[in-house]
Amino acid sequence: APAPSGAITSLAFAAVGKSLADTITVPAGYTASVLYRCGDPLVSTVAAAKNDGTDTDFDKRSGDCHDGIEYFGLNTAGTGPDASNSERGLLGMNHEYQNNLFLHASGPSANPRPAAEVDKEVAVHGLSIVEVRRSGSAISYVKDSAYNRRITAATEMLMSGPAAGDALLKTKYSIDGSRTRGTQNNCGTGTTPWGTLLTCEENWIGYFTRAATDDTARGGATARSVVSLKRYGLSAGAASRYGWETGGTADLYARWNASLIGTSTDGTDDYRNITNTFGWIVEIDPYAPASTPRKRTAMGRFAHEAAAYLTPVAGKPLAFYMGDDSRGEYIYKFVSDAAWSAADAVPADRVATGDKYLNAGKLYVAKFNADGTGQWLLLDISVAAIKNYATYAFANQADVMVNARLAADAVGATKMDRPEWSTVNPATDDIYFTLTNNTNRVLTGSSYPLVDAANPRAYNDTDGNKQKGNVNGHIIRVAEDNRDPSATSFKWDVFLFGAEADAGANINLSGLTDDQDFSSPDGMRFAKSTGLAWIETDDGAYTDTTNCMLLAAVAGSRGDGGPVTVNNTMTVTSGTTSTTSSLAVSTWMGRKPSDTTLKRFLVGPSQCEITGICETPDGKALFVNIQHPGEETATSAIADPSKYGSHWPDGGTARPRSATVVITKNDGGRIGS
Ligand code: FEO
Ligand code: CA
Ligand code: CA
Ligand code: CA
Questions:
Q1: For residue 137, what pLDDT is reported?
Q2: pLDDT in tens, 82-115
Q3: From the CB of 631, is ligand 1 less than 6 Å away?
Q4: What whole-number distance in Å separates Cα of residue 16 and Cα of residue 518?
Q5: 50 in a domain, yes or no?
Q6: 609 lines ligand 1 (CB under 6 A)
Q7: What domain count does the chain have?
Q8: What is the pTM of this model?
Q9: Domain residues for 250?
Q10: Which Pfam family is an annotated match for this chain, by its short name (predicted)?
Q11: Is the beta carbon of 435 within 6 A of some atom in ligand 1?
């Protein structure tokens, strides 16, 4: 694909400085307006939010913790899709989790949780579909649009693909393993070439509990289901994050308890298999408010962050790229069995089109080699390393999809520094993966593997010794051999290393200046209109100096740099003894940024994370999600607004709330120009 006509190749806006102010800062000549806040009503029959913890009816209001966001154009009459229309469209966005403290008048109650509190919390999770319209230069959301919809952690979902109907998915709610209720902890998003929304279930495991005796009930530590549950992070006796299972005896609450309780042999009288119905990419048709979301099991089960597809080529399969965001987890690719037909770009039946491309295909996991090459390793029951895996006996291909992490372990994939978003540069077909940080990657004193070429850094935070490992994260870039979606080999390099500007050349490998230094890249998205790469941060290591931020980059191509040696130095203090170790590792990195190819564009309010990002097709409006301002507020401070960590966006003594912001250029131009 060619670069877009009018691609921006040199950044002209004045970089925004680092800031700890409780506000949004954008460059001179731009305006950031709050569009859609947690609690804002989708219908006029629901009152404006008081934002004092007494609001209810969240199934008709914006949810909390806005994350991934996508724009879907509507035609002028509003009767259906027009992907090119910037005047009228739908935003589909995730509500990843909750700022629980501010959802209730005096903060959340202890276990057992009152049913009304649980019901509210379940409803603030999931997604919003909300119509937006432009009038003059202003963009606002449309109350009472027929497209407005909330999907929550209680909405019925269809299981589809190879694991649907398998014994591993049978529950009391769905004895044939075809359905489940809800989606939660939806982090990043993606779209499809046929105009639907992909939402990615990330830290879903923490919502469930298991009894202390559950390993024994399941047959002990080597029982297959116990091995699986532990690999996904749910140990026997683990408490659920919010205690939703304590809300009552009804199934609506009991389903959050994943213990083996019933007497059936197949799990159809309890929720022992419930966690297997989460951890998927879910496809939603934003244009069909009554449609049932479909969990696409062919794309594998893990802590999904995002999904991005390679530019479709007629007659070739589609490829989607996905990260598993936990320390030392993997990067995956799904390749459809079906070859792309250009007629499917505007299909008559979006659901059938999703079934066509996303229900059958091959799942691969990435192995990065030290020489800048890599392999996609097939995850299939026919692969000897999987079929003969000693740790876990896979039953069939459905089992390989449900336990994709175990299959990836079996084939020896590369353990990465927390893969967050994936995004494709449409001008080059390079695939980018943000690797946000990894506090487990230390040189000594840990059982964790040492650095490798693709995850080459381990060092101490430069100020205050706050973190160790890969403190600031990096962005890796992959090019498929021959740009082929079904290639099983690729080339890679490191696009950028996060760092504090004054950290020293050993750590600040990309030579970042004060106008462009950042830490912990998370969201990342190429803008089709301008070709710019937008990079968002979710940081813990640099927030003593600056709130989280959004940067714009002119990306270049994989291979525009060369080999480099990283000289790691790590000091580990144990008691009164400090041990300093060093380790050199060779890696491959792209060309260093200049002051016109990487600039800070936005800094957010206090204690927030900058999450989702999307644009109108004309590039003149950029939607950015601001998640969890004031997140570090102490539970005891709920009665004292002077102790809130943020009052954004409403100011004064208001409780902070997550929100979508729309950014426009005052001269009506494209964002970043
Ligand atoms: Fe929800 Fe991996 O960030
Ligand atoms: Ca994220
Ligand atoms: Ca993150
Ligand atoms: Ca720091």
A1: 87
A2: 999 999 999 999 999 999 999 999 999 999 999 9
A3: no
A4: 12
A5: yes
A6: no
A7: 2
A8: 0.98
A9: 205-275
A10: PhoX
A11: no
